[in-house]
Amino acid sequence: MSRRAAARRGRLVVVGGGITGLCAAHTWCTMAIDAGAPVDVVVYEQADRWGGLIRTMVRDGCTVECGPDALLVRKGGLLSWMRTLGLTDALVPQAPTGRTVYVWGDGVHVLPQAMLLGVPLSTDALDAIDWIDDAAKARAWAEQDTPFVPDGDGSLGSLLRKRFGTEWTDAVMRPLLGGIHACSIDALSAQAAFPQLWDALHTHGSMIRALRARAPEDADVPEQCKKSAFVSVRGGLGTIVDALVRDLERFGCTMRLGVDAQSINTRDADAVIVTAPPWHVSLAHMPRIQATSVAYVVLAYDARDVSLRPGSGFVAQERPGRMITACTWTSQKWPHTAPPSRTLMRCYVGRMHDTRWMELDDAALAAAVRKDLAQALGIVCPPLWTHIERLSDALPHYAPGHIARVSDARKTLSAHRTYIVGKAYDGVGIPDCMRSAADAAMHAWHAVTE
Ligand SMILES: Cc1cc2nc3c(=O)[nH]c(=O)nc-3n(C[C@H](O)[C@H](O)[C@H](O)COP(=O)(O)OP(=O)(O)OC[C@H]3O[C@@H](n4cnc5c(N)ncnc54)[C@H](O)[C@@H]3O)c2cc1C
């Protein structure tokens, strides 16, 4: 892509029509309209639909998320986006009976609710765990008395082991936190991958103390979601994409599907916001960031054949021969997604350095997942149907040094009014993407118009 300073002010090109690109375009359009300026925005998406990783389909009376399925309600300005899009009333809390999470190690063990990202928040939480020995639990609880000396952006795994001890870290935090990024905690940047833990430690000298002291952030949370950390949207997360696209069309934004941005000329643009991940765009000065491919298998059972204990699913410890990394009990976590006659589950596979699933065709992959389910939960009956999604290069790898690399690239690119934003940079969660998209669009707008 090449571009020279354009005479006309206020023309934005957005590359990529996932949640980040749509939110960036939306923010710019809103700013233009508020300023009484014409809307001059084009969004290019190479696929034949909007939403990127977010896609919802309906099958057999079930709402099936083909990508993400949950939103952290208190994170990243999500609620202000939901208000803007008129979706606050459509937010659905996680079912109260579906809030328990398990870890599949030697058996399937419950994780107490008084924990955040694997950080124990009370001694009761530790007492409720009978599958880790007392010395390891005491070592984890001693995190609050362990002196902290800042040591730069190292690996998450080594930081957590120093703080909580090896046994707790490997049994609890490794599957929980590594699972979110489909990556070993030893290969993740502590600062970039879990800034809430990093900030907690740097402000209070202890993650336990900081997280126990945090004030509830419930002011804006709609009544129906106050008791839930995660929410979904009635009709599925695709509803957010539909609402964004509807608004953008109403604003007069030009929306182009099926266009690879490599082929377009951005010379006339005053600003270019690139939300396509860096491994899909050949642009000078992009930071080098690797990505991990993952897949998941959705399984629908006759509810009479499969009954699950209360909870929303499990994360799996890595074991030889084990394929599943996590399993969501969808119909229990989100009862609105399935009729009472169905038990819906989805099993995640694949991590960085674990690409065994790529060698398997759909039938073999479903069989491997069912073998794990039989072992973990004793489910041996055949599902009524399965649906498999293979997501190539879906998750970015935030390696140590990530923040500095991204910051250096941004400095160089913004001098050319090119802004990089999206899952590859400032957090993989949808709320992170929505917040950083708005920030980037505002930054670009001010750079262009002031
Ligand atoms: C399996 C999985 C489960 C997840 N679950 C959750 C969850 O429950 N909650 C949560 O908050 N987050 C979750 N996430 C993360 C979240 O879904 C993503 O980080 C977020 O949707 C990324 O949005 P994005 O717009 O930045 O990127 P994408 O959705 O990847 O969009 C980028 C877009 O750019 C387009 N593009 C690429 N190259 C070009 C090009 N050359 N020209 C034009 N267009 C191009 C792509 O086609 C794509 O549409 C999950 C991620 C995965 C993989």
Which sheet architecture does the biggest sheet show? Answer: 7 strands, mixed
Give the number of helices.
14
Please bin the fraction of helical residues: 25-40%
Listed once per kind, the bound small molecules are: flavin-adenine dinucleotide
**What percentage of the residues does DSSP assign to strands (E)?**
15-25%
How would you portray this structure in words?
The protein has 450 residues and is of the alpha/beta class. It has 3 domains: 11-54 and 236-289 and 398-449, FAD/NAD(P)-binding domain, CATH 3.50.50.60; 120-213, Orthogonal Bundle (protoporphyrinogen ix oxidase, domain 3), CATH 1.10.3110.10; 291-396, Protoporphyrinogen oxidase, mitochondrial, domain 2 (Polyamine Oxidase, Chain A, domain 2). The protein is 33% helix and 20% strand. The chain contains 14 helices and 19 strands. It has helices at residues 19-34, 78-84, 123-127, 134-141, 156-164, 166-181, 190-193, 195-204, 207-213, 238-251, 330-333, 362-377, 402-414, 430-449; strands spanning 11-15, 40-45, 56-59, 62-65, 71-72, 91-93, 101-104, 108-111, 115-116, 119-120, 230-233, 254-257, 271-274, 291-302, 313-316, 324-328, 342-349, 385-396, 418-420. The strands form 5 sheets. A 7-stranded mixed beta sheet has the order 8-7-15-16-17-14-18. A hairpin with a 3-residue loop joins strand 7 and strand 8. The chain is globular, with a radius of gyration of 22 Å. The protein binds flavin-adenine dinucleotide. The site of flavin-adenine dinucleotide (FAD) has 37 residues, from helix 1, strand 2, strand 18 and helix 14.
